[in-house]
């Protein structure tokens, strides 16, 4: 096994995932830590990183590169946003050094849909990693969707992120499933109810009115309340898929889905129903590739 040359970390709000990588970007070792920045006191990130992360991965002397919420105002330090359009070299030029040979990747900022900015932090590393994995992705225009709590729809042109739009679909699903009349502990795993929700989403307009169908189908019809989470998931994802690309001025024929396989599969199902070709790519592999590519330019 080759020796490790880089410590790479995706450090989010609730969890930290770390890898040591060799000179070709292959993973030598990997560990997860329950050290999300939301759980740490001010100044604690640096201390825990040195005492626990480096030690656990035998990486005390390795240069390190970190991405995610560790660079936010609740993280180690604020890594200022880089402005779109931006690619790998633009991110590399805006890395924030926080210690000797320790850098944090900046987030990205673009013009939003309501006159103010839109932002991402962490997803940019996966996106440039996805681009770095295959040279043909550096050419032409691509539409990429990164599902999650705050889903990102990203327009890429000639290897650079031109613009993106954030949809709070995952957070909206969580809030409504836990704190509304639609609350339920049932898992959202009923494919028939999910497809029913996709159909109810229509063109994604009048979402507040469409959402009430999740209640009415149970209390005024014959639907089982246990199917509500699946129906709600389909309705929200269907509305997002139907309407969000238009905010980027795109009518998609093909979408690259990047992230968790289970969640990407739900988006693929929605896109396929809408007549759009979709292919899923592993988010963790893209994160590793992005951190390695940026580490080489640090």
How would you portray this structure in words?
The chain is an alpha/beta fold and 298 residues long. The chain has two domains: 6-137 and 288-295, 2-keto-3-deoxy-galactonokinase, substrate binding domain (Nucleotidyltransferase, domain 5); 167-281, Nucleotidyltransferase, domain 5 (2-Layer Sandwich), CATH 3.30.420. It contains ten helices and 14 strands. It has a six-stranded mixed sheet with strand order 3-2-1-4-7-6, sandwiched between helices. Strands 12-11-10-13-14 form a five-stranded mixed sheet. Helix 4 (169-179) packs antiparallel against helix 8 and helix 8 packs across helix 9 (261-273). The two termini are 25 Å apart.
Average pLDDT reading: 97
End-to-end gap: 25 Å
Total E-strand runs: 14
Shape: globular
At a glance:
Helix content is 37%, strand content 24%. By secondary structure, it is an alpha/beta fold. Strands 3-2-1-4-7-6 form a six-stranded mixed β-sheet, sandwiched between helices. A five-stranded mixed β-sheet has the order 12-11-10-13-14. Strands 5-8-9 form a three-stranded mixed β-sheet, with no helix packed on it.
Topology, please?
Layout: E1 6-11, E2 16-21, E3 27-33, H1 44-56, E4 64-67, E5 82-83, H2 88-93, E6 96-99, E7 102-104, E8 108-111, E9 117-120, H3 123-133, E10 141-146, E11 151-157, E12 160-167, H4 169-179, H5 191-201, H6 207-211, H7 213-219, H8 228-247, E13 254-259, H9 261-273, E14 277-282, H10 283-295
Parallel strand pairs: 1-4, 4-7, 5-8, 10-13, 13-14
Antiparallel strand pairs: 1-2, 2-3, 6-7, 8-9, 10-11, 11-12
Helix pairs in contact: 3-10, 4-8, 5-8, 8-9
């Amino acid at each position: 096994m080759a020796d490790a040359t880089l410590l790479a970390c995706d450090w989010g709000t609730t969890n930290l995932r770390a890898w040591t990588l060799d000179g070709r970007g292959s993973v030598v070792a990997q560990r997860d830590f329950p050290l999300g920045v939301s759980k740490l006191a001010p100044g604690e990130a640096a201390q825990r990183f040195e005492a626990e992360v480096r030690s656990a991965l035998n990486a005390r002397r390795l240069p390190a590169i970190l991405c995610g919420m560790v660079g936010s105002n609740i993280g180690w330090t604020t890594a200022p946003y880089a402005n779109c359009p931006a690619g790998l070299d633009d991110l590399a030029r805006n890395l924030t050094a926080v210690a000797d040979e320790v850098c944090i990747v900046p987030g990205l900022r673009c013009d939003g849909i309501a006159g103010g900015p839109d932002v991402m932090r962490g997803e940019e590393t996966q996106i440039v990693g996805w681009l770095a994995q295959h040279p043909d992705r550096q050419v032409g225009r691509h539409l990429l969707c990164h599902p999650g709590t705050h889903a990102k729809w990203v327009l890429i042109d000639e290897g650079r992120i031109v613009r993106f739009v954030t949809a709070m679909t995952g957070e909206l699903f969580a809030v409504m499933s836990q704190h509304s009349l639609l609350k339920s502990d049932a898992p959202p795993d009923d494919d028939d109810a999910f497809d029913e929700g996709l159909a109810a989403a229509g063109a994604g307009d009048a979402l507040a009115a469409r959402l009430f169908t999740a209640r009415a189908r149970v209390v005024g019809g014959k639907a089982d309340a246990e199917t509500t989470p699946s129906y709600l998931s389909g309705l929200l994802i269907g509305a997002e898929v139907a309407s969000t690309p238009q905010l980027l001025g795109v009518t998609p024929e093909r979408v690259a889905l990047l992230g968790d396989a289970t969640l990407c599969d739900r988006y693929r199902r929605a896109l396929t129903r809408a007549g759009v070709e979709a292919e899923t790519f592993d988010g963790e592999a893209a994160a590793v590739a992005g951190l390695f590519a940026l580490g080489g330019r640090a």
